[in-house]
Amino acid sequence: MTSNAEHGMLDDFLAYTLAGRRPAAHETQGTCANGARWSWLDEGVLQFEPASVGKGTRSVLASAGVHGDETAPIELLSRLVRDIARGSAQGGLALTCRLLVILGNVDAMRDACRYRDDDLNRLFSGRHAQVPHSHEAPRAAALEQAAIRFFADASSEAGARWHIDMHTAIRASAFEQFALLPHTGKPFSRAMFEWLGEARISAVLLHTTKGNTYSHFTAEACGAEACTLELGKVRPFGQNDLTRFAGADEALRHLLAGESGVAPTTMPRVFTVIDQLTKQSDAFELLVAADVPNFTPFAKDTLLARDGDYRYIVSRDEERIVFPNATVKPGLRAGLLVVETTRHTLSQLV
Ligand SMILES: [Zn+2]
Q1: What is the fold, at CATH topology level, of the domain defined by 274-345?
Q2: pLDDT at residue 1 above 60?
Q3: Among 39, 147, 190, 280, whose CB has the most other CB atoms within 10 angstroms?
Q4: Cα 218 to the chain's mean position, in Å?
Q5: CA-to-CA distance for 77 and 79, rounded, in angstroms?
Q6: Catalytic residue positions?
């Protein structure tokens, strides 16, 4: 039997979380219709354990709202919680994986903003300790600990640890839905690329340096196959056309249900970071349209930015710009340059 409090939480985890509700001490755990056990661990943090756990049981961290205004994936995760709670008999979801659901920056979600003081997705891997007075610092530390505790009980078999961090983009993109894979120095897995293909992610960006994102943290510190998904444009809660996100939603549900999924007809194209635009001073000029879509290609010899004596001129036959932003502080990255590496990358998957 389930209590009313539990129904309120699992039927609409987003509304429950935004309202600042917390379960009473004796109501933090329970059992779903299909026998999966749930535990409320923290505000916006909910763990599920399937009815049976074996040596190779997969552990999946699914997060959204690390940027508070990226509403569509937050709504998708809230529905996912509801469907797991209902169990497969009621048209819900049969869970075969351990699952940690995380709604990231809950305070920013309440304010309908990206963040209050600092971009939470730049504070992981310990960087929060450098900004201890930031509103986001304690949350970054708490989400690191939540991931560490969750994966501490996870199988160490290859492919058993996953992290899908779902975002939406502000900027238009030549590839509407794309993924970012963190750089850990380890080879990329075929399972992840096939999953991204199933999720209808058309492009993958490979970082070549370490970052401070949540997916980088779980890849590095928890040994997870981790990705950041950029799933299209930001809209307020309730105004999202969730069908536009069906590819990622269905692929995540297949992963959690332990269904092998549909073999993707198309693997994503792959792009590797080869350089960056660096803002040296306030004289920095970005010589592309302010709203240039991500992954827009530029031909060799194109001047993309200048700043005093600094020039960025395209030196390969084709380079594409990603996340251009001239408004960053001097000394920071004002954009990434990528080149296509699809054939090489897909031939090296393990
Ligand atoms: Zn985001």
Answers
A1: OB fold (Dihydrolipoamide Acetyltransferase, E2P) (2.40.50)
A2: no
A3: 147
A4: 11
A5: 5
A6: 230
